[in-house]
């Protein structure tokens, strides 16, 4: 609870620093220096905050589930803060007249199930408490089902990794055999997101419920990424891709897409690596591989790939997690922390 309050306070601090920047810009003459100073402070906040939380989680030896929740929450707050700053700063840079966003609206934005900032949002007339209870009960049930599958499939088979020798063929066979379990876990993950976002939307009276599109009909990787998590894709497109494609690398579409995938992969891997105490940039590697097969047309291939990818990712992280428990380092070194231990344990 204390760490969440600190993370929330840091996000709230962004609002007040932004307010200070806007008010100072209206009074001082050296606006360029003032803008660069604000940009420097904001950039340091973005770079430092998430990594400080990661270091704190590791130093306090928090469990994988707790680390996962903390890192996801800090990432969410960072994305919200950036959306607020990126949406409002152009208005004041161009000296446009308009009301400054109220702190109450900013607070609502922090809790609403959206990553796209707007001066107003569609709202429902009332909270349907029955749907709220049902949605969050589904979330609890899905988490329980996930834990049962992981415990009885992956943990049960890999908990002795590092003590018992596993051949390469045995690991590959296990990944393939768990393909269906991986697909079920992927569906449960989707259902968890569906229930959580709809429950939060009902609780905040947020009426825009377009959280995903029909990803199950996707015939290539590009289409799947756009549809699987629609509002995350919109955030990346509006606040990252447009700046890369229109300002930093004008006209270089493929480069902008690759950089967006690298950024997305980095955040995915940072969250997973902190939770598992392993340095395995699997998501980044997967995203880069999918750049080359992004136009491969086959809906059945896409659906089969989802289960295989989930099974492979969980297996590798479990192998590394138990390798680090069962084969501790004799002497601390940077290479020892970075090198995947399942390769030689």
From TrEMBL:
It comes from the Eukaryota. One of its GO terms (biological process) is cholesterol metabolic process. The active site is at 268. It is found in: Endoplasmic reticulum membrane. Keywords: Acyltransferase, Endoplasmic reticulum, Membrane, Transferase, Transmembrane, Transmembrane helix. The chain crosses the membrane at residues 6-24, 36-56, 99-117, 129-150, 171-197, 258-280, 301-323. One of its GO terms (cellular component) is endoplasmic reticulum membrane. InterPro entries: MBOAT_fam, Oat_ACAT_DAG_ARE. It is a multi-pass membrane protein. One of its GO terms (molecular function) is O-acyltransferase activity. Pfam families: MBOAT. Belongs to the membrane-bound acyltransferase family. Sterol o-acyltransferase subfamily. This is O-acyltransferase. It comes from Photinus pyralis (Common eastern firefly).
């Amino acid at each position: 609870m204390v760490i969440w309050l600190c993370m929330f306070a840091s996000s709230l601090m962004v609002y007040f620093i932004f307010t200070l920047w806007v008010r100072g810009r209206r009074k001082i003459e050296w606006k360029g220096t003032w803008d660069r100073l604000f940009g420097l402070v904001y950039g340091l906040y973005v770079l430092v905050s998430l990594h400080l939380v990661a270091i704190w989680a590791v130093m306090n030896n928090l469990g994988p589930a707790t680390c996962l929740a903390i890192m996801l929450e800090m990432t969410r707050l960072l994305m919200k803060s950036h959306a607020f700053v990126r949406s409002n700063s152009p208005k004041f840079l161009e000296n446009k007249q308009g009301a400054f966003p109220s702190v109450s609206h900013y607070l609502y934005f922090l809790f609403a199930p959206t990553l796209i900032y707007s001066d107003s949002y569609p709202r429902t007339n009332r909270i349907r408490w029955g749907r709220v209870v049902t949605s969050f009960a589904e979330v609890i049930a899905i988490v329980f089902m996930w834990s049962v599958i992981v415990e009885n499939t992956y943990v049960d088979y890999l908990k002795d990794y590092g003590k018992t020798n596993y051949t390469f063929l045995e690991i590959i066979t296990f990944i393939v055999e768990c393909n269906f379990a991986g697909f079920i876990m992927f569906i449960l993950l989707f259902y968890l997101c569906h229930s959580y976002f709809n429950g939060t939307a009902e609780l905040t009276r947020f009426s825009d419920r377009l959280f995903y599109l029909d990803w199950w009909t996707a015939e290539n990787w590009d289409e799947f990424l756009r549809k699987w998590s629609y509002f995350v894709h919109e955030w990346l497109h509006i606040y990252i891709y447009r700046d890369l494609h229109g300002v930093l690398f004008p006209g270089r579409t493929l480069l902008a897409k690759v950089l967006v995938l690298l950024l997305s992969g980095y955040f995915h891997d940072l969250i997973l690596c902190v939770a598992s105490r392993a340095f395995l940039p699997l998501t980044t590697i997967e995203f880069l591989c999918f750049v080359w097969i992004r136009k491969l047309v086959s809906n059945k291939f896409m659906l089969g790939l989802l289960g295989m990818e989930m099974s492979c990712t969980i297996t590798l992280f479990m192998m590394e997690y138990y390798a680090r428990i069962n084969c501790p380092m004799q002497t601390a070194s940077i290479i020892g922390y970075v090198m995947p231990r399942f390769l030689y344990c």
